[in-house]
Amino acid sequence: MAESVEVLIQASILPNYAHPGDAGADLHAAEGVVLAPGTRALVGTGVSIALPDGFAAFVVPRSGLAVKHGITIVNAPGTVDAGYRGEIKVALLNTDLTEPFTINVGDRIAQLLVMPVARATFIAVEKLPGSQRGEGGFGSTGVRAAEVDAAEVDATELDSAPAPGRTAPQTGDSQ
Description:
This protein is mostly beta strands. It has 2 helices and 11 strands; from the N terminus they run ββββββαβββββα. It has 2 domains: 8-116, Deoxyuridine 5'-Triphosphate Nucleotidohydrolase, Chain A (Distorted Sandwich); 130-163, no CATH class. 7% of the residues lie in helices and 29% in strands. Strands 2-11-6-8 form a 4-stranded antiparallel beta sheet, with no helix packed on it. One of its GO terms (biological process) is dUTP catabolic process.
């Protein structure tokens, strides 16, 4: 069983776990809002918490809202630090290009994950130790399972390689 932690709370509607074993507790809207296509709004939840030291809460999107309606959270995950005592608000975004989305008081709009967090001690160094991954990031491993593992390819080779399904331009060819 995972560790349990007591969280002091003031709430108009208590966050609740929909199923045993769920990681996220549902947060409910404390106000009604209509999100026009492509717009965002800061929606109150009526929830304020006091987390113990060494913990943080993270506000994440609900998958059903994202898939069915294009509703997501602008700054996902939103971080609630242990020392914060104000109302948890959710920056919702309607990514749908044509349909507005109505949020009613009491609707489940996000999930709250409470997790232990380590406090880092940052140590300045002249050079970082090497790793297998190196500086590969931002899509360097590709999308398809059959693509070359970027960790095994020099970054300069990636920059000059043609996109999948295309051939490298020959000298004098126009692109």
